[in-house]
Input
Amino acid sequence: MPPGGLDPRTGAPDPRTGAPGAPTDALDVPPGEPDGGADTAAGTPDARTASPPTASPPTAAPATTRRAASPLRRLAGVWRRPALRWPKRVATAVVLVVLLALLAAGVSLRLNYAGDPAAGTYTRHRDALWMGHAWVDGRKKDADVGALAARLRGTGVRDLYVHAGPLEHDGTLPVSAYPQARRLIGAIHRELPGVRVQAWLGDELATEGPVGLRLERAATRTAVVRSAGQVLDAGFDGVHFDLEPLHSGDADYLSLLGDLRRVTRAHGALLSVAAHQIDPLPSLHSVAGAVTGHPKWWSQAFFGQVARRVDQIAVMSYDTAMPLESLYGGYVAQQTSLALEVTPRTTDLLMGLPFYYEDDMSHHGSAETVEAAVRGVRLGLSRTDRTRRNFGVAAYVDFAAREKDWTQYRRGWVR
Output
């Protein structure tokens, strides 16, 4: 599942992940008007001869109304029972605790966004860009490579994660998935010396449903390792994995990373991964898993275990459901600090930037801006390890990026 819910093969919402499509406006259908009555000239009775109106006896309420009201009255009667006094108090206390916790979390994030970033907390020229499948399937031409090179010159981008998958559910990868890879890699190396092109491979894991790649199968992990060697043989400078939803503590994933590291080192290549966000509160991933079945976050300890097994780790610090820019920026500052605390200095740590716009429950485009993310990154870096050299940002994704996203990245981070 690609971050953001956008399919890197087409740039459209990923149908496998259920990402929302464009909203559809409802049709405004005017209600029908009642009949206006008889023509007064032809059908109105003479007021002088008409019988005076007689009062109608009051009618009883329809039975359906009485039946609809009865359950409510019964519920109100149950709620007023003295035996429920303590359960009501407990329920009220729980609601108040939840509301106070949400308020405290909001205040904390807002305070996290306050202050000024330290001087010198700008690009270390270790940034990255996620790129769609069009670059390796023949849709992009030499002119597109030239335009990309012009866009990236003068920025801090050193790595390109080019979508070369997805993997099959058994871990294999057809060579037909990336027919123009060598041409692209050669063109990038000519136009942008020093920029590395990594093969972005991913798939949906069968951790929350019956369909997907199963890391618990040794044969599947072996096939994934073989696919990594396959793209490195095709000329890529590294391999970048995005496997989702990946639950915190997955021992099979850690085992896979160990096997992949041996292959990438043998090729003199990079191993990088896209990482879930870290628990903003201790053990929140466990609570979320128990309540929703989707433990969105990783524990900080598991994040550190992953970071120690790779050359680069890029946090997908978007799709946070934060409603305000200040809260989102404070959240990114917190995520940056949490990640810095457990990432070895020898591993490149990159924080994700939302180079796309969506507006749904998980991503409010007005709040999740590049400007807020960059400021949050700088604040977290300033407070935790402002001299860290192996650090950068990663922009998701090239085909959805707007001019304002690039402007905010340059103005806030590149300088």
Remarks:
- The CA atoms of residues 248 and 298 lie 5 Å apart.
- Residues 85-112 form the longest helix (28 residues).
